[in-house]
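Q: Sequence in, structure out?
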Amino acid sequence: MLHGAGVHALREKRGGRPLVIAGGPAVSANPAPLAAIADAISIGEGEGTLDGIIQVIEGEGAGEPRAVLESLARIPGMLVPGYSRAGVSFSEPAALTRFPRSAVVTSESAFPDTLLVESGRGCPGACAFCLATSLYRPFRFMPLAAFEGLLRELPAPVARIGLVSTAVAANPDFVPIVKLLVSKGIAVSFSSLRAEDLDDEKARLVGEIGTASVSLAPESGSERLRYALGKKVADEVYFNAAARLRAAGVSHFTLYLLFGVPGEDEAALLDTRVFLERFREVIGGRHLSVHANPLVPKAWTPLQFFAMEDERELVRRQHELEKTLRKLGLGVQIKSVRSAVRQALFSTGDEGLGLAIVHHVEGGLPWKKALKIAGVNERFPHEKKGPETPFPWDGISGPVRRGTLYKRFEAIERGSAAGAS
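A: Exactly. Output:
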């Protein structure tokens, strides 16, 4: 983005003009790759730092960059390379009296003419691979009264509202919120649904508002691996949810699976085949598609200690999964394994990775050469890690203790191995 706008990517070449501030979940989890690029980085939830950032920009933004950066460094939750003292901590979780929503509604967006509203933050689940579960604690949801206030505040009526959350139907006010929106003539769409949240009433409501397609994420067809990963949802819960949704009129189902997870073996692949056969029987001829992606280790999750499989092994597992699905007559969309391996490097990389990206984008160097010049250890995501392994984000005080994460990782390894052939 910076390169395309004609702005130097490296902080030292800009001299604070323009000022580049970064934030969000990926950046909060591991800000190291942006340490040579961003002037300031917001760690944690934006509500904890945004007011302070605005005050500094309004008060000192036209002054000397050094004074601006020194002021930004004094805001709790702000990491300012070269200015922040040791021990930067995540900003405090926001009370969320006002939930974020689209600033612009247009037919030109990825979700045309849809007002997106964050109806919940965090997740009531405990999946070991999930960044939202680790970073956004506790789970907070937008209550019915807040939606009523939102509708009163809108400057103009909207035709569709999209509810954005990791667990839309886990909101205790999910049913009255949807009914409220429908009563106002507003169409409703969802970012995601969890099988364990879909009782008869919710499933029926999903169908009544005209939802034709639903995605569920069992992550693995092996109940053993699913439980080990922290997704303690039994196979029958997915089958029951599918049956309810089918009865409600849903005609297209998508399942999201992971491969390359701890403890994956031939038995798990067989379990996945049985799971998919049963799921297809339950939906009774409705359309079923499968999306499968390699597991990518993330900072601040128990799987930051996981040694990701090499690209060649992941490709082999991909082909095994594809072969299983073909035998069932199912197609599958799989994210590029090479892309996933690169994503793991971004997720766990240090400051050198950011320099490599600059060499690659601004300097036009081939990716492998850029990594070598920047001194990046490409093997780090694939290496075995222990409780003392240094990580690029170790200097940040986060929402979860490192020891707690490692104990859970050990439990994952034990659980995924239990009963394995």
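DSSP finds 16 helices and 14 strands in the chain.
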